[in-house]
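Form P-L/3: holo structure prediction, ligand MU-OXO-diiron.
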Amino acid sequence: MSGIAEIGPGIYSLGARHPELRIFDELFPTHNGTTYNAYLVRGSEKVALIDTVKGMFTEQYLERLSSLVPLEQIDLVVVNHTEPDHSGALGKLLEANPEITVCCSRSAANFLQQLYSVPMKTRVVAEGEEIDLGGKTLRFILAPYLHWPDTIFTYLPEAKILFPCDAFGAHFCGDGLFDDEVADFSAEFEHYFDAIMRPFKDKIREAVAKVEGLEIELLCPSHGPLLRRDPKAAIARYKELAAPVEDTGCKRALLLTLSPHGNTRKMAAAVREGLEARGIEVVEKAIAVACQDELRDEIERSDALVVGVPTINRDAPPPVWATLSLVSTVTPRGRLGAVFGSYGWSGEAVNLIEERLKGLKYTLAAAPLHYRFAPTDEDIQACRELGEQVAAALLEAK
Ligand code: FEO
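OUTPUT (holo model):
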């Protein structure tokens, strides 16, 4: 049956292709679609599955599976991660064979109870635990937060295959199954890291350390082509991308401003003076002209985030909200914050943004400042002092 490929002796790929998908999870653009990779491993004693597929492909998946093995002969399914794009067919699979054991992390076992009402026999696996299928071994590697808390990798040492869940994947549905059979998808590989994995750089470093010494001839991620040309290169690239932010030895504040009439920016200049007077390195970005990637990089590198925001129609302007939504896509070096801004007749934005920073786990290092229209000399002095207060808090912080 088409859609099934033997990728090693007794090891099959039977996942789903979704070439027409244009936005994954209603969040991430996927210009070349994606795939939901799933596998079957047949040992002399047991038959194991590694992940299933997105729910909409359940029927196709079960047909493919049934053509390889009667469903009642399946012994276990490894759930590397519970997100429904990989566990969506689990319910129907277990309805067909309730005796299948679901092997997963402790977090995944909890998540599965909340995702699916079907009764299931679960086996929580530990770091390094192995299951002997008869001539083939499944060895589990815990990889929490790549990119959910429940993630595990599964290694098959006899075939030198690593099934690393979402890690090292790409949203790319090419003409072939393997990386050497499809067009260049390096941009999708990089974008996938940036969109999905980047917030968890420290966890990526831990996971990479666990697998970089393994013998790997084939890397079988949950999305995109299977990597056989140079699987170690993908792991090495994750190591590079997840490297800690360079420590310049100097505390760094990111000063973000949006200033329709220049008043908030005048305040920013004084805040900057206050910060720099205490030796803080200041990177100032005008939200209206900075690109999103640049803002993300600077948020990640900063020890403090100082936001100058005007009030427009009783709110902060949408680009300010959009910029702050980038915080959760990275791990900033530090989380001290402060807010200031000019307003015309109401002035809600400063307090709204202060609450937003608190919600993002920032500690406010100074009381917020907001002034009507043009700041006076006295106001400017207060802005300078706000900068000095943030600087003092930064210098005290470890
Ligand atoms: Fe592809 Fe996190 O699921």
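COMMENT: The domain at 5-241 is CATH 3.60.15.10 (Metallo-beta-lactamase; Chain A).
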